Amino acid sequence: KQKLDEQSEEWEMSTELLAFADSEDDLEMSEEEKDKKKEAGREGDSGHSSVEEEDQSDDEAEEDVAAAEASVEGEPASGCGSMNTVCTFLPVDHPQKKKRVIANYVDCSRFNPDTSHNWDLEEMLSSIRDCFVTGKWEEDQD
Amino acid sequence: LCRNNNNMASQGLDYDGCNLLRQRLVLSTLSGKRVKIKNIRSKDDEPGLRDFEASFIRLLDKVTNGSRIEINQTGTVLFYQPGLLYGGTVEHDCNTQRSIGYYLEALLMLAPFMKNSLKATLRGVTNDLVDPTVDLLKSTALPLMKKFGIDGEGFDLKVVKRGMAPGGGGEVVFTCPVRRTIRPVQLTEPGKIKRIRGVAYSLRVSPQMANRIVESARAVLNQFLPDIYIYTDHMKGANSGKSPGFGLTLVAETLNGSFLSAEMSSTPQGQGDPVLPEDLGRNCAKLLLEEIYRGGCVDSTNQSLALLLMTLGQQDVSKVLLGPLSPYTIEFLRHIRDFFQIMFKIEVQKPPEDERKGGDKVLMTCVGIGYSNINKSLK
């Protein structure tokens, strides 16, 4: 029971990496899973208990999480920089304050910016004055 | 699961969850790689694909030829084997859970690479709170695409009827010519903002609403610039859709032809607190100031479109200066790496201290993959 609780926490933390099939639909299985299924004969049918099912998906999920983590850590640090590390050193806005994107989050390109800037303050208004033609011009452009 | 994502030999990619569905399906269509998306809201009380996602998939099916789409019984697993981008004349009733912008964003990415020039008539919600409105895409995405060589007389987005959420009833016509190749770009200097334009629209409410919006937005923006013109658009009768509402789209244009935008709509009837037009105008103007602070040559909404066209450009260097990357754009970069094995060089540019030009910028550089539109018919 405790293990299941731990597992459910892990699921919530890593929804993006989750491998869990709700039913035994053909479409829901990867090629490997299909092969496994064939080897296991008819075991996959209603014969086995739900506890066994949970255990099996436990193991699979653990393997998958481990594999995914390994692939993130082991990624070569190329000249361009790994995309997975982008979040840590680039000026990136995270309004939702969560590093891991929620797999079932709303699919939307509209960006709702951080509301920490108060555009009623003269200081903020002054910070963008030179973006306009009415602001200060560089010598070479004047 | 992500285990296949970095495997270049693999012709298919597996993902989890409904988020970023459009990115995955669009890039799958362009790259020809099949995708399988599992665990779509599998833990939800109502699992599986929503109606608007099914509507999007149907639209994708209409503009392609020979696509194979399989969805399991509960709708939690989607398999998509892309066909050829066919184009031509397409009509689609977009599900009103999302606005036309949701569907149009994907068409903007696909249309230049079709066999025949696209003429898409989309019906539904033209303006809502969630997605970029058709007005915003018309005034920012189209000029951006022109910089990549996608232009000509047949390149247009026309708002025929407006329709606010939740009822919809709007209609737009998007026409786009096809291109064999995409031109690389060097957009590194946004230039100074010379003017601000906008549209304040009001539907099935007093036309005075739009005037009140304009007045309050101007009060904020006139502190910076005198050249501000905000059109008021009050559509009547059959052209005003099924639901009342109002809103504002603002666009700042620079000397170098970059466009930065912001927008706001009233809350849909019967959902949430009503908004005063004065507050909406003022807040939208402040949103534009925030967008100007973020800066760059492309605004936040169109970052991913710019990065896609850079990726698909001829085999030459493309550079684009952006404001801070939005979370959606970061995911898009990951997907570009998955589907096209392209990584961008990302350099942070800090503005000099004596200049008042907003926050840090990001210079994105890549060499295009030399994508050739094999669908385009020879004439």
What does this structure look like?
- The complex is a heterodimer of chains A (142) and B (379).
- Chain A has one domain.
- Helices cover 38% and strands 0% of the residues of chain A.
- Chain A contains 5 helices and no strands.
- The termini of chain A are far apart.
- Mean pLDDT of chain A is 59; it is low at 7-23, 41-63, 65-88 and 96-101.
- By secondary structure, chain B is α+β, with helices and mostly antiparallel strands.
- Chain B has a 4-stranded mixed beta sheet with strand order 1-2-5-4, with helices on one face. In chain B, strands 7-8-10-9 form a 4-stranded mixed beta sheet, with helices on one face.
- Chain B is globular and about 55 Å long.
- Classes of the chains: A mainly alpha (142), B alpha+beta (379).
- At the A-B interface, helix 3, helix 4 and helix 5 of A face helix 1, helix 6, helix 8 and strand 17 of B.
- Chain B: This is RNA 3'-terminal phosphate cyclase-like protein.
- Chain B: GO terms for molecular function: RNA endonuclease activity.
- Chain B: Keywords: Nucleus, Ribosome biogenesis.
Summarize this entry quickly.
Chain B: Pfam families: RTC (PF01137), RTC_insert (PF05189). The complex is a heterodimer of chains A (about 140) and B (about 375). Chain A is mostly helical and about 140 residues long.
Question: What are the SSEs and their pairings?
Answer:
The complex is a heterodimer of chains A (142) and B (379).
Chain A: H1 2-13, H2 31-39, H3 50-73, H4 86-89, H5 122-126
Chain B: E1 12-16, H1 21-31, E2 34-38, H2 51-63, E3 64-65, E4 68-71, E5 78-81, E6 84-85, E7 87-93, H3 100-110, E8 116-124, H4 134-147, E9 156-161, E10 170-176, E11 186-187, E12 193-203, H5 208-221, E13 228-235, E14 245-254, E15 259-265, H6 277-294, H7 303-312, E16 317-322, H8 327-340, E17 345-349, E18 361-367
Parallel strand pairs in B: 1-2, 7-8, 11-16, 12-13
Antiparallel strand pairs in B: 2-5, 3-6, 4-5, 8-10, 9-10, 12-14, 14-15, 16-18, 17-18
Helix pairs in contact in B: 1-8, 3-4, 5-6, 7-8
